[in-house]
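User: For my dataset I need records formatted as: sequence, then structure tokens, nothing else. Please produce one.
Assistant:
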Amino acid sequence: MLDLKGYGWQLAEGLWMTVRAGPVAMLLAILLGLLGAGAKLSPSKPLQRIAGAYTVIVRGIPELVMILLVYFGGTILINALVEALGSAERVDINAFTAGVGVIGFVYGAFATEVFRGAFMAVPKGQAEAAKALGMSRFLIFRRILFPQVMRYAIPGLGNIWLVLLKATALMSVVGLDELTRKAYIAAGATREPFTFYFMAAVYYLALTLVSSILLQYLERRYSRGVRRAA
């Protein structure tokens, strides 16, 4: 068994931070994905252009560059604005907020395309029939569109989640004490990098396996009543 030299609790703390950061970032990505897909499918040309620019630009910039830009560049910009308003107080961006916000913002662009394809896969006649029966737009979305959209979107969202989960390791560059940073600190203190990076890899693999089981459950749940082709 690997000797963690008393740093096992630090890895556990880092794992807990990763478990907290990942779902929050994914929730943000889903919300932005729904908004982005709605904008792309709307009849409004300006909204279509904004959503198109969002997906093209964000997907073309590495997550690490975005995190550094927001955390360091954002801090400089905010403090310049505060100084311009006549205040000498320094404002620092929280590492958790910056990391989660950027990761969610980046993967929201990928979720936009997943939701756009899912919405387009739902037959338009169903929403039109529900509207003819007097259902409101919100009720049509909640009862007719959303359950079917999720059935089509879950495989794509599952892939985004698995990539996003590993991308949380990038938050270590802004000092967030997630799993990778804790492994880095322990490896530096003990001079045993293989041991602690190996344990970090094991923890990420465990999270991935648990996530895969939950994703399979969600796919079965949203596919109830749907006949599968032989």
